[in-house]
Amino acid sequence: MTNNLSQFKSVVVANILGSSQLLGNLPSEDLFKIAEFTRQKSLEKGEYLFHQGDLPQGVFIIQSGAINIHRVNESGKQHVVRVLRAGESFGEGCLAAPEPCAVDARAIERSQVLIVQKCEFLAFLRRRPDVLFRLFTALNSYAALLLDQVEDLALTDVETRVGRWLVRHCPDPDSDHPARIRLQTTKRLLAAELGTVSETLSRTLAKFRDQELISISGKSLTVLSPSRMSRFLRIPHNEEEFNGALAYPA
Is 163 helix (H, G, I), strand (E, B) or coil? Predict the structure, then answer.
């Protein structure tokens, strides 16, 4: 009975690993091997997965729920780096590094997380360099995401940041057809992720609604035309930007 239960858990974990962005499409035998050194962790809302300064345990893959990756500065202000949801992963960059974690990770709703143990995973990667290339791709995507965040925070206003976020979450940013986006987090957390506060986010969404760029229904937003929203984001929003656009035409 115990063996059957253990085998069932291994199948479940292997299936979850196979549905993740990081390890998807790996052969089933590889997924079962990784499942052998993967453990599951349950988190209640508000519970921490790890703290800044902790030694990295391995790669974290979100099974369900949502994990807020953030840093707290010296004045106590929280900066949201990323919100992870089912299928997404974090910690790939810590595999070969002895440095402690540079961020905090807290569940913002009840969550299940898979932890692919560091030492065993490194040994596996030494035997399977093709999987290592997947990690490089994941790290490259994460670095690109961080660069986009830095650019948005440094060079754009709140209206542009919110608009870009909406367009990025549309299945086809070039489409003229409506795209529905369900908000899977609180407005306060989304505002923090975009470098603003919830009141400003609400005003910005209301402005987009008044301009017939979006519609709002409960926790769902519909971008009425992603391509039109993209064109709108390229229009200068104040006199200074307009003069700059005239002086430096594209």
Answer: helix
Q: Which of 154, 163, 167, 147 is nearest to 237 (CA)?
A: 163
Point out which residues pair with 223 in neighbouring strands: 179, 214
Residue 205 token pair: 């969404």
Helix (H, G, I), strand (E, B) or coil at 247: helix
Sign of CA dihedral 126, 128, 131, 137: positive
Q: 158-247 domain in CATH 1.20.120.80? A: no
* Tens-place pLDDT, residues 184-223: 777 887 887 787 888 999 999 999 999 999 999 988 899 9
Neighbouring C-alpha atoms within 13 Å toward the C-beta of 231: 9
Per residue in 59-71, pLDDT (tens digit) is 999 999 999 999 8
Residues of the chain with CATH 2.60.120.10: 2-155
Rounded to a whole number of angstroms, the CA Rg of the chain reads 21
CATH class of 2-155: mainly beta
Residue 14's H or E segment, with its range, is: helix 2-18
Q: From CA 56, how far away is CA 66, in angstroms rounded?
A: 19
- Which residues of the chain does CATH 1.10.10.10 include? 158-247
